[in-house]
From TrEMBL:
Entry annotated with the keyword Protein biosynthesis: no
UniProt entry keywords in alphabetical sequence: DNA-binding, Transcription, Transcription regulation
Record-stated family: Belongs to the LysR transcriptional regulatory family.
InterPro entries recorded: LysR-type_TF_proteobact-type, LysR_HTH_N, LysR_subst-bd, WH-like_DNA-bd_sf, WH_DNA-bd_sf
Name by which UniProt lists this protein: LysR substrate-binding domain-containing protein
Source species of the chain: Pseudaquabacterium rugosum
Region (Disordered): 300-320
Residue ranges of domain HTH lysR-type in the record: 5-62
DNA-binding recorded as keyword: yes
Length: 320
């Protein structure tokens, strides 16, 4: 292992960087401002890099300091979390991160099953649209949307096929009586801006041009787009897997024949290979992949077979 700076210098650095003040950092660490300044000087001497610029309006990080803080803050956070777990008697902890809509609509309904299958694991689940940085040591497993960059030190497992298709509330479908994809151009469309499949992909794939120049509503989360569709505000182009609870509960339905879906595999299980032998990581990965294999993405059909049209798919996009 490479030589590490003294821990107390790193704590002082993180506190000053966060507080932007030697005096406030000193009060937090129960030290004098002079002692904190001395710790920073020791760290800068150890690194041979200047970390702060000192001025009349306080202190600010140099570019080198900003870069160092991004790595160090995560490592200190991981040490703090591990310490808290141990002090509070928490054993076999597992930190999982997932994209928000996947976490709330697919993973959460299955967590009771995981708790029953692995009762000895203490699970911490977080959700955000950004991929986790494993170098910071704060996450063991990341469930990513949009693909993972191939890396020799990562295990990457695709989860399941997801049919992407127009979805709306049954009342909306009944009211608008949509029979052909071209009729969507006269209908309020909901755009999910982060989706890998956009209306600009699906509509031409079903012979619809020109594309709409605006959308009734736009969201940066699949769950929000689905909620808007449930409220009857328009048609959402979303994953039948992520929308599964709403489809099963009758809150949403496919606007057209599910055979018109574009099929992708956007969610992936990702974790560092160095963690593969951790019992908690191995158990969660095995459980997740098993549940993923049981996920079919089958879409319930409408009660009105006359409404469901299936025009020829004239593009190279994959259909269900």
């Amino acid at each position: 292992m490479s030589q590490l700076p003294p821990l107390n210098t790193l704590l002082a650095f993180e506190a000053v960087a966060r507080r932007r003040s030697f005096a406030l950092a000193a009060a937090e660490l129960h030290l004098t401002a002079s002692a904190v300044s001395h710790q920073i000087a020791r760290l800068e001497e150890f690194l041979r890099v200047k970390l702060f610029e000192r001025g009349t309006q306080g202190v600010r990080l140099t570019s080198a300091g900003e870069s160092y803080l991004q790595r160090v803050a995560g490592a200190l956070g991981a040490i703090g979390a591990a310490t808290d777990d141990l002090r509070q008697g928490v054993r076999n902890s597992l930190y999982v991160h997932a994209s928000p809509s996947f976490a709330s609509l697919w993973l959460m309904p299955r967590l009771a099953d995981f708790a029953q299958a692995c009762p000895g694991i203490s699970l911490f689940l977080s959700a955000s649209p950004t991929h986790s940085d494993f170098a910071q040591g704060q996450v063991d497993i990341d469930i990513r949307y949009g693909g993972a960059t191939s890396a020799q030190d990562l295990t990457i497992e695709p989860l399941f096929d997801e049919p992407i298709l127009p979805l709306a509330s049954p009342a909306f479908i009944e009211r608008h009586r949509l029979r052909e994809p071209s009729e969507l151009l006269q209908t309020p469309l909901i755009q999910s801006t982060v989706s890998l499949v956009q209306w600009s992909d699906w509509l031409p794939a079903h012979g619809v041009t020109p594309l709409p120049d605006r959308y009734a509503l736009r969201f940066d989360r699949a769950q929000l787009a689905l909620d808007a569709a449930i409220q009857g505000l328009g048609v959402a182009l979303e994953s039948a897997v992520i929308a599964g609870p709403h489809l099963e509960g009758g809150r949403l339905a496919p606007v057209f024949d599910p055979a018109q879906a574009v099929v992708i595999r956007p969610h992936q299980l990702v974790y560092p290979q160095r963690l593969a032998r951790r019992p908690e990581v191995a158990a969660f990965a095995a459980w997740l992949l098993d549940r993923a294999r049981a996920t079919t993405g089958i879409v319930p059909l409408s009660d009105d077979p006359d409404r469901l049209g299936a025009p020829e798919n004239t593009t190279g996009l994959s259909a269900a």
